[in-house]
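Data deposition worksheet. Section B asks for the primary sequence of the deposited chain exactly as it was used as input, without tags or linkers unless they were present during the calculation. Section C holds the resulting structure in token form. Section D is free text for depositor observations; keep each observation to a single sentence. Incomplete worksheets are returned to the depositor.
Section A, Depositor: J.P.
Section B:
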Amino acid sequence: MKEEDILELEQLRDSFGEDPETFIAVLEMFLQEVPDDYDDLKNKMAQEDYYASGLLAHKIKSSYRMLGMEQETLLLQEIEDRAKRREHIEEIPALYERYQQGYQDGLQKIIRTIKHLKNQL
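Section C:
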């Protein structure tokens, strides 16, 4: 497995030291919680409820930040900022689409990271 196929988990190492079991637990929690929030975000975007979308983006963003997934974090931050300020809201759908395009790949990277960590145990 190539290094770019899995997450580096620097933020988790800073918080928990070198603890693969904790990393696995955090990653598995992400896989349980974020897809539900993603579905909620998808529904709010379909309804063009950008304020609610911004609140969900804020919630989801912290999960990505904890895993060091910078691109997703930045896109969600941009959605949140525009929704909160109610400025440039016409850009929110394009930002959401960019986030959506990488969503499945991100989940697959997390799954590969879990498998890698379990193999180390």
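Section D:
The two ends are 16 Å apart (CA to CA).
The helical segments are 10-16, 20-46, 50-66, 70-85, 92-120.
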